[in-house]
Structure formats: C-alpha cells, structure tokens
Amino acid sequence: MYQFSPSSTALLERCIELAKQNEQTNAWKERFLVSMDSKVSDNAEETLAVCNLESSEEMEIIVNPTYTDDKYREIEADPILNINILFEDANNGELLTKLAQNIDDTCAEKLFNHMMKNHINLKYIEIFFKYFLPHYFKRHQSRLCLDVMINAYNVYPAQFHIILKNMVNDETSTNILQEFVSTLSPSKQTDILKIIMASNISSNTFMRHMFSIHACYKNCTGIENIDNFIFVKLKEASGDCVTDKQYGRLLFTYLQNKKDCNNIHLKKIVEIHRSPFRRPCLNLLNGISEKSC
Q1: 250: part of which helix (H) or strand (E)?
Q2: CA distance 211 to 219
Q3: Distance (Å) of CA 88 to CA 83, 91, 96, 124, 136
Q4: Which of 23-37, 63-77, 121-135 is predicted least confidently?
Q5: Which of 181-190, 200-209, 253-262, 281-290 has the lowest mean pLDDT?
Q6: What does each C-alpha distance from 221 to 132, 229, 253 come to in angstroms?
Q7: What is the pTM for the complete model shown?
C-alpha cells in the first residue's frame, strides 16, 4: 500500500485522470489507483512509505516533530524559563544552534549567567558548550564572549575542552582565543595547549591559530611531547609559511629550547625560511650545532 502526502495527491489524481480509460494495463492505474482512498496521517512523528517515481522503489522517511514559530519565539524571548525544552531533545543540537544564531545579546547574557552560576546538569552543560557557544561565537566578537570563555574555564574545567576543540577546528574568529589565552597563567596556558594538541588539528588550523599557540608555547617549553607537537606542525607548515613572521617567531622560540641539532628536517626548515626571523634562527641553529659537536 502506498501513501502520499497531501501536496502530492492532487498530482497523482491528475496523472490517473489523463490515463486512457480503456487502457487496463496502464502502469499508473495498476500501481496507484488502489491507494487513492488512503489518507496520510496528521501525526508528524509517523513513518511514511513514499514512492520513488523514478525507481519505483520504496524509501522510508522519518518526519520529526518541529517547533512551531510561536513556540520558538517563546523560547527565544526567555530561554531560561524554557530551559528544560532547550535540552529535552538536544542530542542533535538543532534548537540550540538556531537559538545561538538568532538570540539577542541581552537574552544571551542572561542565559550565560544562568548556566555559569547555577548547578546545571553536566550533560546539559556539555550540550550547551557543543552546540550553542560555537555558533554564538561565530556571530559575535564581543567582551561577553571573552567573559564566557573565562567563566566556563573556571566553573567547568573538565568540560572546557568541548568549547576549545570546537573553536579551534571551526571557523570561529581567532581573536577570542587570542584574548583568552592572554588572560591565563603559564600553567593554564600549558593546559590549553595540551587540549589543542589532543584536537588533531590540521596544518591550516595550526597556521590560523599560530599566534595563540605561540603565546601558550613560549611559557611552557621544555615539555617533550609539546616540543614534538610544535616541531611536527612547523614541518607541515614550512612550505606555506616561508615569509610568515608569526611562523618565524614560533620557529625561533622552538630553537631556543633545542639542546642538539641532529635533525636534518629542522635544518631544512630554517634554511628555506625567509621572514625577518631567518637570521636569528640561523644564528641559533649554528650555535646549537657547535655545542653538539
């Protein structure tokens, strides 16, 4: 039995009417005429069997319940009052994402304060960090965003990695992260760099956030796994950053902490670099080579 949505029923009726009455083998009549009395349920959660007219195969479409415009406006006007609705079906993040893209600053600030100052279910916090904040940060480059980052790190340190990984790997402005790391102590900057390391960032992402990475790295050098991470990323980006000053600055900081220079790849990286940091890097490299001989 085939069922059709109301929008397609009229077209089906027209196709059957156009079929010749004496053409008993007409494919339209044979296949679909028996289903004309079937009605589509108004239940939005019902699974409907829909005919693919090109392949004549059935495919299953799940029609999910949606929020009405009035209900959404009610949530947007006072998300705190409707906070249970925000998270009751938030695994796909659709409602939180839409809210982040449309909420005004006043309501957003109230929502942030509520999430940070009350004992919220940690599952809700994780969902909020994953779906709401990245989209909100895309729209805003305000002091409020920086305050949210600082408070989230202090109040929910175990969940903060969710925000940071999304920010680093997304197209969020680099300014928020730059300002955030500048407020941290060296030990906390080390923690931030470790989260970035665990995020499996691409070479392009590394280059985009090089300022923040250097700000953290210069205060936590000498940690072997961090040094190894920096070298791998310097090597990957060397061809694209030949004249990049920020890259040269990071390369210089890395060389300051090298005890030996037996790495042929490091020598090649320094030799091809052409920013104003080329000469200082070469001097450091030569000094390391002399000491290690």
Answers
A1: helix 245-256
A2: 13
A3: 9, 8, 11, 9, 20
A4: 23-37
A5: 253-262
A6: 34, 11, 9
A7: 0.72
